[in-house]
Write a structure and sequence with these properties.
This protein has 280 residues and is of the alpha/beta class. The protein contains nine helices and eleven strands. A hairpin with a 2-residue loop joins strand 8 and strand 9 (173-175). Keywords: Glycosidase, Hydrolase.
């Protein structure tokens, strides 16, 4: 699971379940955690050590804040959180940050993947941190947005994992779906900044069931079911190595602005399924 801030009832509910968890540090906390090591120690004490029965997997220091007003705080906050975890005997919990796919300035073909100049000034040093600590880069990967932003050149089949054969040939690698091409573009970008050993974890992916172009229950179910069935195989670049992936989202968010933002969930707010999905 992934949660976007340390919500106490959720953390209490997760205790003893052995469900691995990504816990986000909200952007509002980044400046304080970056400038004050004792604040980072308090954060770890209150939100991680206080829940010894929760299986914390990664701490995501900011979600989609690079580039932007908070980007300059991310690396220092990561360092301080990492130090606080290590001092608490919790060094097995990996520290990272979650980035939007827009940090790539070039994504096609996948072998040409590169971070944009405004993102790479932050991501270069962050990737060094990840590489030296054995931590992955968390990336939110949405073929839905790539498809709806370029419907003239991208087929819905390529986006939904339903193409019958190779759509994009990139040197030795053949791509049958957009998700793999997007993930491998991130791997290329990482290699360009000295992060060829850094793993990509897909910290969000999904498809909306209503509210916009190509947003339907059928497309959402097709995408998410095919995503589940596919990620164990890896991408052409990582063949045979499963891609750790998190589906956005558990619930439709009825308090968000009308449109697609309300319709990413597998469940309605009343806990009824939007469509059947099989994780086994």
């Amino acid at each position: 699971m992934r949660i976007y801030y340390p919500d106490q009832p959720t953390l209490q509910a997760l205790g003893g379940t052995n469900i691995p968890l990504i816990l986000d540090v909200p952007k509002e906390d980044l400046q304080n955690l970056a400038s004050d090591a004792s604040a980072a120690s308090d954060w770890v004490q209150n939100n991680i050590k206080a829940y010894p029965d929760v299986s914390f997997r990664y701490i995501a220091v900011g979600n989609e804040v690079i580039p932007g007003d908070y980007a300059g705080y991310v690396l220092s906050a990561m360092n301080n959180i990492q130090s606080a975890l290590s001092a608490s005997g919790l060094g097995q919990i990996k520290v990272s940050t979650s980035v939007a796919y827009g940090v790539l300035g070039t994504s096609y073909p996948p072998s040409a993947g590169a971070f944009s100049s405004d993102a790479s000034q932050y991501l270069g040093p962050i990737v060094n941190f990840l590489a030296s600590n054995g931590s992955p880069l968390l990336v939110n990967v949405y073929p839905y947005f790539s498809y709806t932003g370029n419907m003239n050149d991208i087929s819905i089949e390529y986006a939904l994992f339903t193409s019958p054969g190779t759509v994009v040939q990139d040197g030795q690698y053949g791509y049958q779906n957009l998700f793999d091409a997007m993930v491998d573009a991130v791997y290329s970008a990482l290699a360009n900044v000295g992060g060829s050993n850094v793993e990509v974890v897909v910290s969000e992916s999904g498809w909306p069931s209503d509210g916009g172009a190509a947003a339907s229950v059928d497309n959402a179910r097709t995408y998410n079911q095919n995503l589940i069935n596919h990620v164990g195989q890896g991408t052409p670049k990582t063949s045979g190595r499963a891609i750790e992936t998190y589906i956005f989202a558990m619930f439709n968010e009825d308090r968000k602005a009308p449109g697609i933002e309300q319709h990413w969930g597998l469940f309605y707010p009343n806990e009824q399924p939007v469509y059947p999905i099989n994780f086994s």
